[in-house]
Give the backbone structure.
Amino acid sequence: MAGEAVLIAAFSGRALAQSARRAGYEPLVADAFGDLDTQEAAAAIRIIDGAMATGFRTKPLIAALDALASSSSTPPIGLVLGSGFEDKPRLIAALGRRYRLLGNDAATFKACKDPSGFFAKLDELGIAHPMTQSFPPANPDGWLTKRTGGSGGRHIRICDAAVTERRRRYFQKQLSGDRLSVGGVFGSERAHLALTRQWITPSPEQPFRFGGAVSMPDVAPELRRKLESAALSVASAFGIVGMASFDFVVSDRTPHLLEVNPRPGASLDVLDDDVGLLFRAHLAACLGKAQSTDRPEPSQTACAMAILHADRGSLILGTTPWPSWSADRGPAGTLIPKGAPLASVFAEAATADAAEALARARLAELEDLIYEHTQS
């Protein structure tokens, strides 16, 4: 399969494009940023202007994907979807009628992102989750409001006395505890599963904004078993295939499932290897093909990724001397609004705590570097 073309669509296609390239494929990418490292990894790229503000729209996205497919010397084997489709089952259905979806279909996305049906199914399966309802709580203390189909934590708000029932929002009791995620490839004869620990980087407007993730968290064997068992049970119940992630909060030593993202997510950066194991396994699961019996050597280092946001203020990128450990590198002249994702950093260390600490230090270093090289 080496050298075959594959379509990728995501708000940021960089991680998928790099994994596909490591796995020997020719990634054809439609995304919202067109970052320098995405351009480097992709065989061809089309930027969907305004997608981050409005979400993907059917006609511009299909036009971009058709142009990418036409530019390829060989017909693409299918389309892999990343972030940006969680609340768009009709768009996924339209894409599925035009291309071979290498991942979950519209019905699976809708089922995973419909709060009433999803949490009712968790009750049937005996899987713990926070108290969740479609109407505002009588006492808002300790409650959150979330947007149906939201991801990345940017849509989560703290309830107050003025909160009202709104279409496409639901309400969930807030739990405190460690944030752990089960990521991997599902729906095949042998799942590739791994845990990550995640954290948030709050801002005044977005108190639960996703901040980063690290592999190899120090988790007790019994808790690990519970997390993996719950993920496998839910994946089976919803027919999830390919890369997906299951986000938990561990409260009172019990993992509570918050949400499922039935597509490749941020953990790809910290769980993949140098030959694109996860991308290979994803395609094998989606195409119903047997996977290689080779097993990767267990990693001896923890990997962390963290997102830098433009919290100092909006800026226009200059000619930044990007460090080797940075990613999502915007071209010079790119306008970054205040609070928007600015870049990412990677770090490796012997333990998850050390890798996370190094990533956080690099965030500060990269922030200084970027703001020093802004255009006037």
DSSP finds eleven helices and 18 strands in the chain. The mean pLDDT is 94. The first helix runs from residue 14 to 22.
